[in-house]
Amino acid sequence: MVQPFGARLRAAMDERGPLCVGIDPHAALLRAWGLGDDVAGLETFTRTVVEALADRVAVLKPQSAFFERFGSKGVAVLEQAVADARAAGALVIMDAKRGDIGSTMAGYAAAYVDKNSPLASDAVTVSPYLGFGSLRPVLDLAAEHGAGVFVLALTSNPEGAEVQRAVTAEGAEVAAAMLRHIAVENAGAAPLGSVGAVVGATLGDTGVDLAVNGPLLAPGIGAQGATPADIPRVFGAAARNVVPSVSREILRHGPSVDALRESAARYAGECRDAVAG
Ligand SMILES: O=C(O)c1cc(=O)[nH]c(=O)n1[C@@H]1O[C@H](COP(=O)(O)O)[C@@H](O)[C@H]1O
């Protein structure tokens, strides 16, 4: 029986530092690496990142969109990357941000968190904006397979506030309501629940209760302007559960494997220090 995702993530963060590196093969990055914006370029880029980092960072987070844009051949590259990264010891969060009615969420759950799926990942990102309850199939299947689910709560982009800071009929902000749902899912889990929240590192003091007993995925560091030093200000007492995530600001150091490793090691160290306070 595989350990729950939260326990595996805590162990990986303690051993390797809390950093998550995003694999986001933007067309501009492929060109900057001297690669074609095509499947061969995608394959080389992705293999290089996995080879450079999967044996040393806690988490890799492929952004599904950048693979899907090449159709089935791109998805095949994604499949291989997920398998290779996990084999090398990294946990993989599939950044798919799926969200649909419950019966369709069962399909997304089967795609990403069923351990027998070709795209089986350690965790997946989902959007709760069809209602938190619509996520039930993915929450349940993830629990059954020892996988995790990261629910968008307060995203790093400024436009997110329009929806996430809106006030519900009960008087709470939507994001706060989502965080409460997440806390309920994680109640009693130790050392860490397997249902995470996504909270941008760009946001400053969030004013919401981040004590959800689960991991807090914190994108926005690097290209979007946040730094590891922002972590204590944004997350306060919850900083220990933060998984800081960096994509472009590390990826731009390729194609040199050494330079990718150096950049990731620098961020991992800075994030470890920031989280420790
Ligand atoms: O779920 C995410 O990872 C995510 C949530 C969020 O609020 N903001 C955000 O930027 N992301 C993702 O994190 C990555 C950020 O990339 P960089 O800005 O290049 O570090 C992208 O793949 C985004 O899709």
TrEMBL record:
InterPro entries assigned: Aldolase_TIM, OMPdecase_AS, OMPdecase_type-2, OMPdeCOase_dom, RibuloseP-bd_barrel
Residues at the active site: K97 (proton donor)
Keyword Lyase listed: yes
Keyword Membrane belongs to the record: no
Keyword terms, alphabetized: Decarboxylase, Lyase, Pyrimidine biosynthesis
Domain Orotidine 5'-phosphate decarboxylase: 18-263
Functional pathway: Pyrimidine metabolism; UMP biosynthesis via de novo pathway; UMP from orotate: step 2/2
Documented EC number(s): 4.1.1.23
Enzyme class: lyase
PROSITE patterns named in the record: OMPDECASE
Catalytic activity: orotidine 5'-phosphate + H(+) = UMP + CO2
Family of this protein: Belongs to the OMP decarboxylase family. Type 2 subfamily.
Stored PANTHER family: OROTIDINE 5'-PHOSPHATE DECARBOXYLASE (PTHR43375)
Protein name as annotated: Orotidine 5'-phosphate decarboxylase
Organism field: Yinghuangia aomiensis
Classification lineage: Bacteria, Bacillati, Actinomycetota, Actinomycetes, Kitasatosporales
